[in-house]
Amino acid sequence: MKAAFIASSIIGAASLVAATPAKIEARATSTSSGSLPTVTVKGNAFWAGDDRFYIRGVDYQPGGSSEAEDPLADTTTCKRDITYFKQLGINTIRVYTVDNTASHDECMSALADAGIYVALDVNTPKYSINRASPAASYNAVYLQSLFATVDAFANYTNTLLFFSGNEVINDDNTTNCAPYVKAVTRDLKQYRDSRGYRAIPIGYSAADVDSNRYEMATYMNCGTDDQRSDFFAFNDYSWCDPSSYQGSGWSTKVETYSNYSIPLFLSEYGCITNTRTFGAVAALYDQDEMTPVYSGGLVYEYSEEGSGYGLVTISGSTVTKKDDFSALQSQLAANPAPTGDGGYKSDGTASTCPEAGDHWDVTDFSGEELPAIPSGAVKYMSQGAGTGPGLTGDGSQNAGGQSSGTATPGSGSATATATTSSTASSTQSGAAGSIKLTKGEFSLAPMIFTGVVAFSTIFGAALL
Length: 464
What we know:
Number of domains: 1
CATH class: Alpha Beta
Protein name: 1,3-beta-glucanosyltransferase
Strand content: 15-25%
Order of helices and strands: EEEEEHEHEEHHEHEHEHEHEEEHEHEEEE
Distance between the termini: 15 Å
CATH architecture: Alpha-Beta Barrel
Radius of gyration: 20 Å
Strand order of the largest sheet: 5-6-7-9-10-11-12-13
CATH topology: TIM Barrel
Number of helices: 10
Structural class: alpha/beta
Organism: Zalaria obscura
Largest sheet: 8 strands, parallel, barrel
CATH superfamily: Glycosidases
Helix content: 10-25%
């Protein structure tokens, strides 16, 4: 994030505002959408077959995250919006919340037919890591929901990637959550592989926190292959029009990550401090400036949800394009992705794990050490996750059964020592899911927990 939003101890709460659709009892599993090549990782780039793949897309959650609804299960809405995706000329949408009990076949097929991939957050408001108590919220009930979401989307050819988390670490005081985020990434990779799915890339979407962005990026790329992310992404609002490659600070970031060995991209961008002309697009897809290090990005966001970031407004079934829509459309048309390999690096070594310091408070699990997978979740590796909880489950953050052991680095298995706890605190605070409830000028991670949303102390900007 561009400024330091701090959300810490909870002192108040408000009920979630909307009920979610009734759960579909049949287990949802994906079937191939068939018309797009699958995307893989080689070196620090994505590839669709032999062609380098650049993410050129938008973040998509019509209705807003507080509704906790699945836009990919609503065929009418999905097909309506595909028309506008095609007009923009994008190839990817990011979706923050899905129902892992619903069918997504029709929407995913329609998206594939339109040449559009899906970058998917696997967390939901009720099933997410709680940044105030990460150990308790990292439990078997939580992982079962995430694994069920993988089951629901793994066989679609246009499932581009899975985000293991979004902005769980949003200041220096929450860096102690990093081992749990990394453990979730490891668990998702092991589940994907143990179930025989293709190597769908799995990684993390980070807040752009000046003081620890480099540490977080290197941490997710350090250690053994089974621990490392397949990619790393930033929610970056540092380019505010009018700006430039140098003026925005992007040139410095490219230099900083010039030797980073996995794909980097922007999981959110599009500052609204001034009128958006999306001048960032020209730099983002310029081979002389960014493509040797970055693989594109996703503009926040498709629909206006009260924060000023929308490219369109939606009223009932009517979609109205805003000036931002035309500006982005023009910039994407004028700045195609480069041909060839874009200057990518074909190989590279893992990063060095950051040491504890004033801005990196990771002491319980140092270096390559990670929490062991909760013992109750080990069976899913061989048996599968079964039916997911969808969006109407009881939630996971008070479920107990969390990890209390340390995994062996490089073991390649999920059988490290862990114990099960049968009790959990009745009060949760500071939970960070993979979606946003509000959006101000900067990227703000939500405080979400079962049935309740709360914000405590916020510094640096007012909520819009």
